[in-house]
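Support reply, case 0932

Customer input (verbatim):
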Amino acid sequence: MRFEGLSIKKMDVHDLDEVLKMESSSSVPWSKKMFIEEMQNPLAHCFVINMKEGPGGRVIGFICFRNVGEESELLKICVHPQYRQKGIGKRLMRFYTEFCKSKKIKAFYLEVDASNRAAVHLYQSFSYEPLAIRKKFYHGRSDALLMVRKA
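Our regenerated output:
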């Protein structure tokens, strides 16, 4: 499915109500304070993807990451449940990759719940490979899969 009128912009405090609604379904949700601190971190980058519906549009996804030297760590990526499996996550990942390549990033890291097959598949489609496993990392139940992509 193709969406017209999508735009990606830097996240600001006005986006946080919508971001927090989506984030509430995360296995390890961030608080409003955590997002604000991340947006203020000079090494961090947080962006939202909007669908044009009226003034300002509607936030339907977001991505947060940190760049240090030639490395980047993907911290959060989320798509509104109503818009999942429609290419929005891929669009955010393409944006992330292009943004980082313009900053001369050479290695990309992330951590994902190993049981989240859709997310693992998305990352593999962007050439991420397994690096390590943290057993029972999430709430003592599910494993964290560490993944890497070299530019």
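We compared this against your earlier run and they match. Two observations from our side: The first helix runs from residue 16 to 23. The domain at 6-109 is CATH 3.40.630.30 (Aminopeptidase). Please reopen the case if you see a mismatch on your end.
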